Amino acid sequence: MTHTTAPEPTPSPLSPFEVWERLQIGNARFVSGEVAHPNQNAERRSSLTEGQHPMAVIFGCSDSRLAAEIIFDVGLGDVFVVRTAGQVIDDAVLGSLEYSVDVLQVPLIVVLGHDSCGAVTAAMESAASATTPTGFVRSLVERITPSVLAAQRQGLTTVNETVEEHVKQTVSRITEHSRTIYEAVEENRTAVIGVTYRLAEGRADLVSTIGRV
């Protein structure tokens, strides 16, 4: 009896810059209300049954207003999405990001935060009152608190300013905690960028980069 092995993923032909450019174009369509809803038909669905070749991994907040495929106007198979409240990093997140880079060979990691973030607000309130929430929410707050303190050291006091700093800190922590991703960036196989989403405008703004973008 013979065994067949799954085909190797095909590296994306796009550079990190080209991927970000495509995401920006999709976001511009979303902002203007002229969305194209690409790659969302039956033909596209059928084409993905044997594998996936996403152009980016988007690690974002779980907030219901932050659906990555919608705000970047992409479709099935276009982006690999990882979400936690406050885009908090844990072992599962890092494992998912490493999988996207090493196995799926994705050239761009996007860290996606948003204004008025409830998780960041909770961390700010916890730091101000010197108290912590109960249950597993405490873990979320504790993981965001270093970003809150970093923002305070810079004189940043608003939630949205702190969100932006948290995005920047998260971009740095990904490469600091994952040797796999650090090496991929060093070898120019991928890049990591930080983006903040404006709820009212629907706009995604670049705020941080590591690697060639």
Automatic annotation (TrEMBL):
A biological process (GO) annotation for this entry? carbon utilization
Query: Keywords for this entry?
Result: Lyase, Metal-binding, Zinc
**EC code(s) of this entry:** 4.2.1.1
Enzyme's top EC category: lyase
Alphabetically, the GO molecular function entries are:
carbonate dehydratase activity; zinc ion binding
Matches recorded under Pfam families: Pro_CA
The keyword Zinc appears for this protein = yes
Catalytic reaction list: hydrogencarbonate + H(+) = CO2 + H2O
Instruction: Name the positions where Zn(2+) binds.
Output: 61, 63, 114, 117
Named cofactor requirement(s): Zn(2+)
Question: Which InterPro entries did the record assign?
Answer: Carbonic_anhydrase (IPR001765), Carbonic_anhydrase_CS (IPR015892), Carbonic_anhydrase_sf (IPR036874)
The note on the cofactor says: Binds 1 zinc ion per subunit.
Q: Which PANTHER family match?
A: CARBONIC ANHYDRASE, CARBONIC ANHYDRASE 2
Q: What does this protein do?
A: Catalyzes the reversible hydration of carbon dioxide to form bicarbonate.
Q: Which family does it belong to?
A: Belongs to the beta-class carbonic anhydrase family.
What is the official name of this protein in its record? carbonic anhydrase
Organism in which the protein naturally occurs: Nesterenkonia xinjiangensis
